[in-house]
Write a structure and sequence with these properties.
single chain; 136 residues; 8 helices; 0% strand; elongated
């Protein structure tokens, strides 16, 4: 194993030790340190085969984290796609998660607007727009 490989692998492990990363996200971080794409892909493949980097685990962690911060499924799916995660994998993981998005939306609405339901159509439109922007 060359010096470049071990250094790149060490950088990958440090990044993965801090938090989960998607393959594309990790690839972008490591690309700063090498221009050898074959070396980069081999390090990423090794991280995957060793179980250090797992796309499904990353998606599940990301969804839990963002949903706890009050974001809905549409926004989370969009953010994952922006991070280079394949749509099919996103849909697969979303189907296995047991999150009640309707209840989550109600919690977010109550946190922002209080427990009372909207009395006018303007209030309802405002609350609906807020939830829409949050990805519900």
């Amino acid at each position: 194993m060359s010096e470049d490989t071990s250094q790149l692998k060490a950088k990958a492990l440090r990044a993965l030790a801090r938090r989960e990363h998607g393959r594309e996200e990790l690839k972008q971080k490591l690309a700063r340190y090498t221009e050898d794409h074959a070396l980069l892909e081999s390090v990423l493949d090794e991280c995957e085969t060793q179980g250090w980097q797992n796309e499904q685990r990353f998606i599940a962690m990301y969804v839990r984290s963002r949903s706890q911060r009050g974001y809905g499924p549409k926004k989370i799916q969009y953010e994952l796609q922006q991070r280079g995660v394949p749509r099919s994998l996103i849909e697969e993981v979303f189907s296995t998660l047991e999150i009640d998005w309707k209840a989550q939306a109600e919690v977010v609405r109550k946190k922002k607007f209080g427990p009372a339901l909207p009395k006018t159509w303007q209030e309802e439109a405002k609350q609906t727009q807020y939830l829409y922007q949050r990805g519900f």
